[in-house]
Design goal:
By secondary structure, the protein is an all-alpha fold. The protein is 76% helix and 0% strand. The protein contains 16 helices and no strands.
């Protein structure tokens, strides 16, 4: 069944092309793609001071969305062995999407992203190039960042930080001080709490040769590290919110940190679904903080 689907994905014709595009979008993890869209919007909303240049903001958002899509599609291609070992049902791991089709879409989407970016600003084009470069550094090559816990999350956090800056550049043409502060706090949140993603993937990660936190430290120590780190970054977010009213949404990291810490400690030794609860809480926290930031920035 899996092989049949894979063959269909490479068949010619407009419907097959559209099908592979849809599978490529699914492979790139839509929930993550839309977190990046939200970060982009937050960067723009924190930056703008008056009328929003709608056309430039939309053009910039489209370019950035395509760039992030490329990054996560490349990651999916590089993760096939580990994903299959972990029982993933995503398109590449299941065979619904072939690596040839996915690779072709990576090229098309990257070219489209850069072609659109030139209509924003030169700084924005450079940010797009940096984002694509980070994505390649994360997933490809013998020294891919994803193989080690700290470099992997450092690259992921850098991608989040760049997204906030790109939003500010697209909306406003400059990057005011509130945006980097917000971006740094949220990048630290990604860099520390993002390790929760690896709790349920140890089997596949070992097969893929990765050195994630649970593999390097052991599950118990890794969970404690994430719980402690999330508490520290949550406290930093509350402090930043207290010092700058424009960053009030960061106060939500406080209760989010409590949730992540509790789930991280409680999930040890349970099934994979339970092990991934801290990561789900981490994703919810990102939507929560960023949506609050948009709402507060839009309030007169």
């Amino acid at each position: 069944m899996t092989r049949t689907i894979g063959v269909r994905a490479e068949a010619s014709g407009p419907l097959s092309v559209l099908r592979t595009l849809c599978w490529s979008y699914t492979e790139a993890r839509p929930i993550v793609l839309w977190v990046f869209n939200l970060r982009f919007l937050v960067g723009g909303m924190l930056a703008f001071g008056g009328e929003i240049p709608v056309v430039r903001a939309v053009v910039g958002g489209a370019s950035w969305f395509l760039a992030v899509w490329v990054v996560y599609l490349v990651n999916g291609i590089s993760d096939i062995a580990g994903d299959r070992a972990n029982g993933s049902h995503r398109p590449l791991a299941s065979g619904a999407l072939t690596t040839n089709a996915a690779g072709s879409w990576c090229v098309v989407l990257a070219v489209a992203s850069l072609s659109i970016a030139v209509h924003v600003t030169l700084v924005f084009v450079l940010l797009v190039v940096l984002m694509l470069t980070l994505g390649l550094a994360y997933s490809l090559g013998a020294h891919a960042a994803k193989k080690w816990a700290v470099p992997a999350l450092a690259v992921a956090a850098s991608g989040g930080l760049l997204t906030y800056l790109a939003g500010a550049e697209a909306f406003h043409g400059t990057i005011p001080s509130a945006v980097p502060v917000f971006a740094v706090v949220m990048a630290l949140w990604i860099a520390v709490v993002g390790h929760a993603k690896d709790f349920g993937d140890a089997v596949g990660d070992r097969i893929a040769g990765r050195r994630t936190l649970p593999i390097v430290l052991g599950e118990r120590a890794a969970r404690l590290a994430v719980a402690t780190g999330s508490a520290a970054i949550g406290g930093l977010g509350v402090l930043a919110a207290a010092l700058n009213p424009a960053l009030l949404s960061l106060a939500a990291l406080g209760p989010c940190a409590v949730a992540v810490s509790g789930l991280s400690i409680a999930g040890r030794g349970q099934d994979r679904r339970a092990q991934r609860r801290p990561y789900r809480a981490f994703m919810v926290s990102q939507y929560t903080v960023n949506l609050l930031a948009v709402g507060l920035a839009a309030t007169p």
